[in-house]
Amino acid sequence: MSGVAGARVLVTGASGRIGSVTVERLAAAGARVTALSSTPPEHPGADRVLVGDTTSEADVRDALDGVDLVVHLAALAHKNAGTPYDVYSVNVVSTFNVLAQAGALGIERAVVAGSINSYGLPQNVVELLPAYFPIDTNIPFDLGDWYSLSKRNDENTARMAWRHWGIDVVTLRFPHVNSPDALLEQSRGYAADPGEGVREGWSYLDTRDAARAIELGLTASTRGAHAFFLAADTTSAPYRTEELLDRFAPGVPRTRRFVEREVPIDLTPARELIGFRAEHQLPVETTDLPATELPATDLP
After folding, report:
1. Which residues of 203-223 are buried (b: 16+ CB within 10 A; e: fewer)?
2. Least CB-packed of 115, 188, 220, 246 within 10 Å?
3. Residues in domain NAD-dependent epimerase/dehydratase (predicted)?
């Protein structure tokens, strides 16, 4: 498919931070959008708006009526977004329900909201460091919380759905995604306490770029089930990446050097598979502080 114009696209989690921007973008590109949310969404761009539960077979069956493409964003997006049981069960059942029904209907492509947490370290109960930098799709994972487990298993569900029904699935491992103002606030926090971001590589993504990546995932020529990291090219910490790693991950190997505030995550798959590169970068100036003068934070 060369574009989404004219296609009927289901967006689950349509009222969410990423979902609302995605609905607007897809509608502006000419898609006919079915917006499904657990709360009444307000989407002037959607021509079909549904309130429903993505763990419900009946609700998802209704939402998939006449659909050509699927964007699955509905989830409890943090380990503290509910009880451990609720976070895990809602996430894995929703993803299975949506992809299984879409695959059985012969829908050819879906984009799923994954997470950087699928490799397990950002929300882990143990303060571990990545095995190496840049973080890439082969990084060893260590799962210590139910949210990360759910996102890892969502990727397994995508692979199963492709193998069983032939539905092509792109899972986007999102970092922290937010509005420009909220991202600037996070950057100010990292200026004072940059050690907090080491396990995520100080990565971030503007919601507008997240929505664009979703559109690219829907229109890409990839086949199979793919999961890969997304992020802006730069970090949200106002320090040079090499100096941050020297201070907060001194014993962690690096497979290459990083220039200025280059994010220490391998973004090659996103560029090669769906042609994505972030367009919105934080206007943060790199400080001239040497590593020895970075704010003190206990090493994990």
Report:
1. bbbbbbbbbbbbbbbbbbeee
2. 188
3. 9-181
